Here is the input.
Amino acid sequence: MLAGELYDASDPELVAARERARGLLQRYNGEGEAAALRTLLGRLGEGSVVEPPFHCDYGWNIVVGARFYANVLCVFLDCAPIQIGDRVLLGPGVHLYTATHPLDLAQRREGLEYARPIAIGDDAWLGGGSIVLPGVSVGEAAVVGAGSVVSRDVPPGVTVAGNPARRIGA
Here is the structure.
């Protein structure tokens, strides 16, 4: 899975890892237990805030820098690494999807999938409801407009918006 190769999400080890994550998420989302979030994530930088409710698949594939802020209803499908820099801002309902499915019908019928990492650079801002697709990087200080679907890398300092997200402004 982490190598970007096809994998079976129903593998018992992966199912157990997702069950572990659900338990920690329940403690965080339902009871506000901050220690559960710190246990869940691979790293949660100093001064970072993740507003509940929050959802992820495994948690340990998510590394977050300092002073990160994620508003409510964010979803991180972390079947591959998700690297988030310092001072990154996520609006409500931002979704980061590393998981995807093969185009080949026979492989999909077998339940196979694969994943590609996502990286978000320092000081980036992703507007509410934006979606970042597998294998995409959002550069340092980039801005993603609300409701955008980001299917390609966003260079540093660039603003994108739309579906698919395209560069706007100068």
